[in-house]
């Protein structure tokens, strides 16, 4: 079984240069403000595409244990998937 790789859905633009990023869904015109943890997760997904990278980014940035970071990253990835901002592909 392969590990899913996540990427921004086509038409979703990301501004991740600031501590709190923004995603813009060009299809709907809606934008989504990200808090610090959300920004770290999306940066990791853009760079690496994996849950493991997102967990590591949250754990390092916020000095939380990997278990807590995994719960937070999995939950937020679920929100992003549900809103159609990211998509999962084969790893």
What brief labels describe this structure?
91 residues, alpha+beta, Arc Repressor Mutant, subunit A, 3-stranded antiparallel β-sheet, globular
What does it look like?
- The structure is a single chain.
- The protein has helices at residues 36-47, 51-62, 66-82, and strands spanning 5-8, 12-15, 22-25, 30-33, 86-89.
- Strand 3 and strand 4 (30-33) form a beta hairpin.
- It has one domain (5-85): Arc Repressor Mutant, subunit A (Orthogonal Bundle).
- The strands form two sheets. A three-stranded antiparallel beta sheet has the order 2-3-4, with no helix packed on it. It has a two-stranded antiparallel ribbon with strand order 1-5.
- The chain is 45% helix and 22% strand.
- The protein has three helices and five strands; from the N terminus they run ββββαααβ.
- The N and C termini lie close together (9 Å).
Number of helices: 3
Q: Give the uncertain stretches in residue-range form.
A: none
Average pLDDT figure: 95
Rg over C-alpha atoms, rounded to the nearest angstrom: 12 Å
Which strand order does the major sheet show?
2-3-4
By CATH, the topology is: Arc Repressor Mutant, subunit A
Query: Could you say which overall geometry the principal axes of the C-alpha atoms support?
Result: globular
Structural class: alpha+beta
CATH architecture: Orthogonal Bundle
Number of domains: 1
Counted beta strands: 5
What's the main sheet like? 3 strands, antiparallel
* N-to-C SSE string, H for helix and E for strand: EEEEHHHE
Proportion in β-strands? 15-25%
Bin the helical content: 40-55%
């Amino acid at each position: 079984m392969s590990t899913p790789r996540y990427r921004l859905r086509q038409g979703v633009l990301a501004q991740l240069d600031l501590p709190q990023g923004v995603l813009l869904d060009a299809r709907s015109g809606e934008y989504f403000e990200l808090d610090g943890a959300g920004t770290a997760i999306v940066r990791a997904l853009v760079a690496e595409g994996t849950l493991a990278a997102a967990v590591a980014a949250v754990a390092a940035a916020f000095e939380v244990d990997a278990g807590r970071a995994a719960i937070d990253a999995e939950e937020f990835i679920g929100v992003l998937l549900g809103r159609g901002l990211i998509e999962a592909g084969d790893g």
